[in-house]
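I hope you will forgive my troubling you with a question about protein structure. I should value your view on which stretches of the chain appear to form regular backbone elements. Here, with my thanks, is the record as I have it:
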Amino acid sequence: MEIPSPSSSSISDFIPVVPTPKVLATTPTVPDVHVPIRPRWVLYANVLVSLLQPLQYGWSTTQLNLTTFNNQEECDARPVAPHTCLMFPGHTKAQWTMAVSAWILGGMIGALVIGRFSNKFGRKRIM
């Protein structure tokens, strides 16, 4: 018993012929290594904060150690000319430098320690 093969016209009557989309051969895209990275606003904010931090101690420290106001000869002269010496009478340059260094070290230790106290007692009570 032979099965008759369907004719092409009979197949198109029952099964719709749909063209398949052509698959385009794409090459994998590799990011261009020469494209510069665009900075975001977070980068600019972090740079700004890092540039403002030295103002906490840096400006005051440089003013205390400024040679115009910390010149041993001008401070030893009697009478001391106005606006030439900020050291108190009787202090040496080494004592003055130690006082400035202790002030900076105290600021660093205080910044490290105060967090525990403020967490324990509260921020407003510590201030």
